[in-house]
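Can't paste images in this forum, so I'm doing it all in text. The chain is below; anyone willing to post the predicted structure tokens underneath?
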Amino acid sequence: MSIEGLDSLNRKLGALADRVIEQEMEKAVGRQAKMVQGKAKLLCPVNDGELRNSIKTMVERREDRITGIVYTNKKHAPYVEFGTGPKGEADHDGIAPDIAVAYSQKPWWIHESQVDKETAEQYHWFKLETSDGIFYQCTGQAAQPYMYPALKDNEKTAVKNMGQYLARKIREEAKK
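Text version of the structure:
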């Protein structure tokens, strides 16, 4: 059995879907990046809020690919996410499994000009007073993942939300 005009209708629906997807995909990806950003901010450990407040999003379009990016430009962000030193290596559950992290096994020294006294006291670092100032010995910190879990725990929801959003936009466009 053949329906007259079915091929033409399918072509028109396909063109409609392509146009709507082209126009709306960036919005859909951006919305899901914002959702992941919100989750990352909730999971982010907080001292003064600087790291949490630095978590941003952007949408990038390259050729036929649209990518949502959740990022921070803070230099210490990877150290929080992955941990550092022997403590980080011993306790790094929840980090991205495909990231190979190299942890220093030797303690390192931090000059007092690089860290405030309250932070050093908070972590109970060993302190050495010299003629060049105070140095604190650090043996690392456990990983405190916030970016990877924010994405991984919401991956299926983001894909589902994007599909629903695009389907709704196609239906709206088809009614016009």
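The chain has a mean pLDDT of 89. Residues 1-80+145-176 form one domain.
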